[in-house]
Amino acid sequence: MLIWSRSARKALSLLGMMLFTLFFLLPLSVILLSSLTQQWNGVLPSGFTLNHFVNAFRGAAWDSLFASLVVGFAASLFALLCGTWAAIALRQQAPRWQKRLNMLFFLPSAVPSVSVGLGILVAFSQGPMQMNGTLLIVLVAHFVLISAATFSNVSTGLSRIAPEIEHAASSLGATPFYRLTRITLPLLMPWMLSALALSLSLSMGELGATVMIYPPGWTTLPVTIFSLTDRGSIADGSALTVVLVVTIMGLMIKLERLARRLGSP
Questions:
Q1: CB-based contacts of 163, cutoff 8 Å, min separation 6
Q2: 127 contacts: CB under 8 Å, gap ≥ 6
Q3: pLDDT 10s digits, 20-42
Q4: What is the topology classification, in CATH, of domain 51-263?
Q5: Residue 107 gets which letter from DSSP?
Q6: b/e string for 37-66 if b means 16 or more Cβ within 10 A?
Q7: Threshold 0.85, pTM exceeds
């Protein structure tokens, strides 16, 4: 609903800022404050220390950050490859099939991550495709969970590329491979990078499915944070949370800047 009154717009803006501060900035501020304190037994914390951040970059915590980066980039790149291929292939289909297949590609986003983790754990714990206890099962779970977001971003970008550009190239004698590599993919690259940034952030922050299937030695950062806070190590968990947030934001900002650079005329 449109608000025409200036005073009403100001009131709604103020309300939005209050809600943003209360439910987003305040929890992050508390996490940051907790990561820098020695004790927090009362209303306010006592003592200041950087030991929790020092611990975040060594030992098991550092291994968890490395595992999250490896899993995130591997699953995101594979999802980007499959999502781009699916979006381009779907563009060639009739509108009736496009609608049906679109619903199929978005189906993983409608399934809770815990259900995905349990299904993959049961399906691949025995038989010829046994993956339980390996890194591959984590990659499969993350790919399933982020594939819909990747496909959505790439499809949106592809819909903004006029088909007449490819038709003109074909009329000039361009082969399908030339059109794909020299015209379609370069024009689609900004949306592909945006899709990579989104899927990477989703993968690195995923917990529900990962906590059910992660193998020994490949504990991702969200699982480590959950384990620390479950044992009562709130400060160490808060420090790792700050590291995770900063890492994800840094990667997303870098990829989005590159996408805008490629998309600018």
A1: none
A2: none
A3: 898 888 888 888 888 888 877 76
A4: MetI-like fold (1.10.3720)
A5: G
A6: beebeeeebeeeeeebbebbeeeebebbbe
A7: yes
